[in-house]
């Protein structure tokens, strides 16, 4: 009951935002007034560098000529997670105010400090995605979180936050969201990747802060930090466009809708049973059965080794690519399903074929540009 009343409160709140937009038709972002049909790039000022240089996050706002939802798409909240930056570039190339109902607010580089330094965190060593809601008098991260939340996220009715795995760790494209909320679940399905995780909210995350404000939000995870991955980028581009279509912000595609994704029961990391040098033998997207060998850890002399085994049947949705491991290191992230994973494996394979980077991209995959290899 609590859940459904929360949902209806959320809907009312979002309706109010839309009504407000129709009443005055002016959207004010970081002090700039933007009218329907306008496109604007805004410098969102943050604390300057200690070199006297100013620093600003670039924000691109596209206001549709017709009213509708207001979606934010953000990337690089972890400054070294760059697939999302390219996803947003491709999306922005394709959206014009004439095509759009409602507004798109794109923030390709939220953690601009980390992005400049190839670093996940802010210069104060904090994780921006654990610093929400933040405070104007708090740490640097807390201040960035506070102004981003209050000046950008608060304007929006829906959101998508784009992430990748950490360094040396890659994720199979997946959506993490609060799937017990019906509207969020529908958006997650519309995104169109085969793996959905009903992920717990983490304290201090942007996702938790958005949910607190009744803004349905998806978190897209794909690929590895500091690397471009064409399949992950194509899947993300398609996903953002699919969500905009499902929200009525873009005209529906005549293509058949994406395959029905499967929701994982749970997911866990398989950790290293010992320190050593690992030879992984299962790819990302591979299927495990109970007792399967996922990798072998040996010492450099080759006179000792131990197998890393799968504790149950599932699909590898994340893994390390760094063979040098300490005992306890997270090696393989496995999603477990109630149904047998064969069906999911087939889905993952056919979906990867659609996104094959050796094939030129089409309008569903991002602007017909040559694939990044
Ligand atoms: Zn991240």
Key descriptive features of the protein:
alpha+beta, single chain, 373 residues, 8 helices, binds zinc ion, four-stranded antiparallel sheet, OB fold (Dihydrolipoamide Acetyltransferase, E2P), 19 strands, Aminopeptidase, 13-stranded mixed sheet, globular
CATH architecture verdict of the largest domain: 3-Layer(aba) Sandwich
Distance between the termini: 50 Å
Overall domain count: 2
Q: What's the number of helices? A: 8
Task: State the secondary-structure class.
Answer: alpha+beta
- Which value, in Å, is the CA radius of gyration? 21 Å
Mean pLDDT: 90
Question: From N to C, what is the helix and strand string?
Answer: HEEEEEHEHHEEHEHEHEEEEEEEEEH
Main sheet characteristics: 13 strands, mixed
At CATH level 3, the topology of the largest domain is: Aminopeptidase
The helix content, as a percent range, equals: 25-40%
Quickly name the level 1 CATH class of the largest domain: Alpha Beta
Q: What sort of overall outline do the alpha carbons produce when their principal axes are compared?
A: globular
Strand content: 25-35%
Say which CATH homologous superfamily of the largest domain is assigned: Zn peptidases
Low-confidence stretches: 1-6, 18-22
Q: How many extended strands? A: 19
Small molecules (ligands, ions, cofactors) in the structure? zinc ion
In brief, what are we looking at here?
With 373 residues, the chain is an alpha+beta fold.
What does this protein look like?
It is a single chain. The chain has 373 residues and is of the alpha+beta class. The protein folds into 2 domains: 2-262, 3-Layer(aba) Sandwich (Aminopeptidase), CATH 3.40.630.10; 266-336, Beta Barrel (OB fold (Dihydrolipoamide Acetyltransferase, E2P)). 27% of the residues lie in helices and 29% in strands. The protein has helices spanning 2-24, 83-94, 112-116, 140-151, 182-191, 206-212, 230-246, 342-354; strands at residues 27-29, 32-34, 39-46, 55-63, 66-75, 101-107, 158-163, 169-177, 195-198, 217-223, 262-264, 266-271, 276-280, 287-288, 293-298, 305-309, 314-320, 324-325, 330-336. Strands 3, 4, 5, 6, 7, 8, 9, 10, 11, 12, 14, 17 and 19 form a 13-stranded mixed β-sheet that branches. It starts with a helix and ends in a 19-residue tail after the last helix. The site of zinc ion (ZN) has 3 residues, from loops. Zinc ion binds next to loops.
